[in-house]
Amino acid sequence: MLKLERCLISNGEFDLSADLEIEQGQRIAVIGPSGAGKTTLIEAIAGFRPLAQGRLFWQAEDLSEKPPGRRPVAMLFQDGNLFPHLTVAQNVGLGLRPDLRLDKAQQENVMRALSRVGLDGLEARKPAALSGGQQSRVALARVLVQGRAMLLLDEPFAALGPALKAEMLDLVAELADETGATLLMVSHDPDDARRIAGQVVLVAEGKAHPPVTTAELLDNPPPVLRAYLG
Amino acid sequence: MADRAQPLSPWPGILAATGVAALILGTLVAVVLRAEAGTGLGASDWAALRFTLVQASLSALFSVGLAVPVARALARRRFPGRRVLIALLGAPFILPVIVAILGLLEVFGRAGWVSQGLGLFGLEPIRIYGLHGVVLAHVFFNLPLATRLILQGWQEIPAERFRLAAQLNIEGASMFRLLELPMLRQVVPGVLAVVFAICLTSFAVALTLGGGPRATTIELAIYQAFRFDFDLGRAALLSAVQLILTGTAAFLALKVSLGEGFGGGLDRQVRRWDGRGSRVLDAVWILLAGAFLLLPLAAIVLSGVPGLLELPPVVVRAALTSVGVALVSTLILLLLALPMAAAVALGRAGAVEMSGILGLAASPLVIGTGLFIVIFPIADPFDFALPVTAVVNAVMALPFALRILVPRARAVVARYGRLGLSLDMGGWSFVRWVLLPRMRPQIGFAAGLGAALSMGDLGVIALFADPELATLPLQIYRLMGAYRMEAAAGAALLLLALSMGLFWLLDRGGRWHAEA
Amino acid sequence: MKHLAFAAGLLSATAAFAETRELTVYTYDSFVSDWGPGPAVEKAFEEVCGCDLKLVGAGDGAALLARVKLEGARSDADIVLGLDTNLTAAAAETGLFAPSGVRADYALPVSWEDPLFVPYDWGYFAFVHNADAAAPGDFKALAASDKKIVIQDPRSSTPGLGLLLWVKAAYGEDAPAIWEGLADNVVTVTKGWSEAYGMFLEGEADMVLSYTTSPAYHLIAEEDSSKAAAPFAEGHYMQVEVAGKLAATDQPELADQFLSFMVSDAFQSIIPTTNWMYPAVTPAAGLPEGFETLVTPEKSLLLPAADAAAVRDAALDEWLTALSR
Q: Which residues of C are less than 8 Å from B462 in CB distance?
């Protein structure tokens, strides 16, 4: 269980408060108006933003002071998820060992993950030689080998076409199921939420609300969300 | 921002910066402590200060003002020989002063090529000696450096931005405002400060081209205080004035150069679609700058060829010594500059950048004397001639290395810092797998420049000279002092070739198999 | 490989001399250079002294004195070689030097009485020009002519200081007027001798401040008789280069032996074609062929060391004032 206990997150322009719990294994969409603080919330969970107040727990473990790489979190950003100068296999391998000293078993693990996301035979390529969808798959293969308990997505597929995006989201859902990871994804698109998220966290007016069932919220949106959804 | 998690520690860089500041200020303090009561600054010192400020400001303005169109032309144009031209542009900067002066005068002097050419048409020879001569010589030294640094700024603009601009049909002045002006606002102040600092400590060039004692600079006043009056206190005081002026310039440059970066790209080859209309203008700029910089080099090559064939073995030995010193010096330079660049990129800009630029402002005479005073009670300073030379050369090259490394380090940390953190790539892993590979071209360029500078610098070796272990620049001075001007010219050509060779190897090495 | 062999040679040499006495001589850089007198002097002295002669180069004469002052009585040096009469007053004032006791039959145009310092060579400052061009016969004629000259800065160069004192010794209170007259002849002023001489050879000026012995180099080493020194009617200022023994030396006898050796034939015959100056004591074999072609000034000018030190600062101010206009 992920628990944000009376948290206050400051991003310099406004404060965001969050006091909520998320069940292990849930798939959550974080939605809300533009600039409401969806990314701020995700960044705080990932450790890129310090908490001004409150505490953050995963199970019984207090994460509040942990650096990002030591949290049980894998994260995909809007862009820049791959190092252009490293090969596909190296980019994935970083998920296992940041110093890339992979042993045989770990190398096999990398190849398995690449195979799982459908990138057989592309391990020696550099990212620039891949399509947008393939680049996303490399990042997902890395998430797979990281094997972290939480997966945070900050709209990493925003640049992809609708069909490709849907394909990626389905792949994410499958991977989350296979690994049992808890998924939090920022989204602009209610269809994305309906597609893979069982619950929704609404971020609006300086507050991250506790999760509610996706269908419930979207079928009967509160005024602030209604204005945003149009 | 400051309390955000960072993939690296700034402390090694802060430590390096502290060491550099300690060397420069410590030697100054050593000189002050050794000084007996002397006189303060006199009227002639203030005159020297005024002249120094005027010539250094003008030299910086002209060098950088001319470098912008030249760099823009080089950034937009692809033509055969472009790489060679850019490599050769580094040459004036790394020449020993005396060689450069003689090369310049062979072209622009009273009996130089230009005057002779004018004479064919019955025109008066040009008058090179005066403030304009000082500025001309300093532009000769610094235009290439400024061009390289600004050109690098252009190359830091990701290919994606130019693609976008081309798509939007943005050209000429609009392109300049949209992409190039913001880049220049970030890059130019730092380059101005560096060139200003170099010209501040000019002495032989300013005096010779300035036409006499009107062109007395602070460095000459230091020289006078030291060897004519043996007034160490005044020498230290003047050196402190130089440091303060440079510190002020660096501070102002840092204040105005703040700006947003351009974000990252995907390492695509930069292609430009704009500027079809100004092809002629660009060509003119490139040709003019090329002629201005390459003619004196050609003069040096032509005078050097006859002497090259009969170089005495000691000169060859000195060349090997110089290469060794240059390589050690380059290593020290990188060990200082990389952590410092990282510290600046991590937001510790002010003090680290300031300490980095002090190396330029420090009078070699004062550093050398200070080191002598420090080492003498413990050991024979002559035993340390080469290591001291390597360290001082590295410190002198540090400001250039930082100008080259900092923008890129900033971009790398900004773009990949969070990704690295999320992958738990703390410290060394981030350096090994992200920072160093992403900065390879810049590291190569900085190393090449550092090595070449060290090759050409007479530096403190003249104060610590060991007859058995002379460097090549020292041997050139010795040959000249022994009337052997032809052999000296040959040795100068050898030095030029070796410096350029080292520069080329390291600079190319950085780009080898690199996509950027 | 050459480097390694060289290093090995150095090591074994150091080992072999570990037991022998060592005499350390501080001198100016061009003395120790491979084209200066240093290598030959070292070899010749070591043949007779059974010791190791260590020549250490430090800049030029003025830098040498600064160095001695910095090191004080704790200096490793036993001998300082390469000061000239413009520096000896300041050097004597340090109290670091001991009387030499050396007497010799000096070939100097002036009598030598200094108890501390022993002269080893000397020369006349002169303007060198191309032999095929007519040269002015004195400073006034030079000032009146349209000849262009390159000179060195007295603040950073030994010949530059020599010229300052030359004009002062010849004209005394009228020196400022002479400098004002020369101002439009001076193309530029350089940091050191090498820059100025290089510019002259490139054709930047008609004349350069150097020594009457400079043409000897071109004549003897290059078989080129195209350079000449212009004799000036006022007389020529002299530079006398000297050596002195440091009072704190740990090798007083060896130091005395070196100073005596310095005025002997073995040392003196090396000087003319390595330092390109007149030897202080004419060697038995006479001067090398070619030296007889040099101009011999009718009058030798030399301010006594104490006077040189006294007029220096005022002369510099006059020079700066005249040339800064």
A: 29, 59
Cα–Cα separations (whole angstroms), residue B446 to B93, B185, B339, B458, C119: 14, 22, 14, 20, 51
What digits encode the pLDDT tens for the residues B376-424?
877 777 777 778 888 888 988 888 888 888 888 888 888 888 888 888 8
Query: How far is CA C105 from its chain centroid?
Result: 20
Burial of B312 (0-12, 13-18, 19+ CB in 10 A): middle
pLDDT at B406: 86
The hierarchical CATH code for the domain C19-122+240-292 is 3.40.190.10
Instruction: Look up residue C263 and give its two tokens.
Output: 């005025």
| CA-based nearest distance C160→chain B, Å | 12
Residue A37 lies in a domain: yes
Torsional sign, CA B463, B469, B475, B481: positive
- In angstroms, the CA C182 to CA C171 distance is 13
Of the candidates A147, A169, A186, which is a domain's last residue? A147
Residues 6+ apart with CB under 8 A from C37: C31, C270, C271, C274, C275
Radius of gyration of chain C (CA): 20
Taking a C-beta distance cutoff of 8 angstroms, is the pair B476, B516 a contact?
no
What residues of chain B, 341 to 400, have a C-beta less than 8 Å from chain C?
369, 372-373, 376-377, 380, 382
A103 shares its domain with A136: yes
pLDDT for B230-253, tens place per residue?
888 888 888 888 888 888 888 887
pLDDT-based confidence at B310, cuts 50/70/90? confident
According to DSSP, residue B224 is labeled I
Separation of alpha carbons B211 and C324, rounded Å: 9
For residues A96 and A110, give the distance between their C-alpha atoms in angstroms, rounded to a whole number. Answer: 8
Contact A77 B428 (CB under 8 A): no
- pLDDT, residue B277, reads 60
Distance from CA of A76 to the nearest CA of B (A): 8
Rounded to whole angstroms, the Cα distance separating B485 from B300 reads: 12
Note the pLDDT of residue B308: 86
For B459-475, what is each residue's pLDDT tens digit? 666 666 666 678 898 88
CB spacing of B228 vs C316 below 8 angstroms: yes
Per CATH, the number for C123-237+297-323 is 3.40.190.10
B22 has a pLDDT exceeding 80:
yes
Task: Please indicate if any CB of chain A lies within 8 Å of the CB of B111.
Answer: no
| C:234-253 residues touching chain B, CB 8 A cutoff | none
Q: What is the largest CA-CA distance in chain A?
A: 56
- Distance CA(B208)–CA(B205), nearest Å, equals 5
Q: Which residues contact residue C18 at a Cβ distance below 8 angstroms, ignoring those fewer than 6 apart?
A: none
Residue B362 has pLDDT above 90, yes or no: no
Boundaries of domain holding B468: 1-34+309-516
Quote the tokens at residue A72. 């049980």
In angstroms, the CA B294 to CA A44 distance is: 57
Q: What is the pLDDT of residues B121-141, one digit of tens each?
A: 888 888 889 999 999 999 998
Mean pLDDT of A155-159: 86
Q: What is the pLDDT of residue B4?
A: 56
CB B165 within 8 A of CB B175: yes
Provide mean pLDDT across the span A194-203. Answer: 90
ipTM of the complex: 0.86
pLDDT value for B275: 58
Query: Looking at residues B51-75, what average pLDDT do you find?
Result: 93
Are A178 and A191 in the same domain? yes
Task: Report yes or no: A176 and A11 within 8 Å, Cβ to Cβ.
Answer: no
Cβ(B90)–Cβ(B302) under 8 Å? no
Its domain, for residue A203, covers: 23-51+66-72+148-230
